[in-house]
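I am writing to request your help with a piece of structural work I have in hand. Thank you for your consideration; the sequence and its tokens are set out here:
=====
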Amino acid sequence: MSEWELPVATGDVQWGTCRSGTLATVTAERGLRRPDVTTVEMVGGIEKRALVLADYDPQWTEAYAEQERRIRAALGPAAVQIEHIGSTSVPGLAAKPVIDVLVTVEDITSEENYLDQLLDAGYELRVREPGHRLVRTPARDVHVHVMEVGDEAADDYLLFRDRLRADPEDRDLYVRTKRALVEQDWADMNAYAEAKTGVIAGIKERARQSRT
């Protein structure tokens, strides 16, 4: 996410959900050069941040486009796919004003092909964990999630986004859930993200059923 399905979260996208089985399969098929990390490294530790939902802002689309241009300039063909995800990617949906970007690469373990380039472009490393790297702007208003091509968790971000864009009932359910939760006091963003997982899982399941 960023939001959308994991215990460790940032912005409006959840993370920490990469499934080891899926990643192991991808690794075996592609013959990655080195093993991925096996633990979660969170640079700066847990952060307690104010949870504020803003009404949808059409300028979020242009804000994303600016980041896409910045990332493409930094990574070139190493960025296989770049997508706007998270609540700011869904027209009409209230969201925390953080732009979440999904970038897929061929080999998540080959950080020399993308991480230094993103840091040189002005982003800062926030998370390194199995199957996922997160960099963000110093202002913390943009989160870039780097995942591997074929990772089921990356596909789920797009599945969830597309469902919210297309289905007004699920979009309304999700925003009502967020508005109710944001009124509560949370120790950190992870606890807030965990509280949404049941609703998110239901929406994703309906999205999968609609594909069949």
Q: What stands out?
A: The radius of gyration is 16 Å. The domain at 8-204 is CATH 3.30.460.10 (Beta Polymerase; domain 2). Residues 59-75 form the longest helix (17 residues).
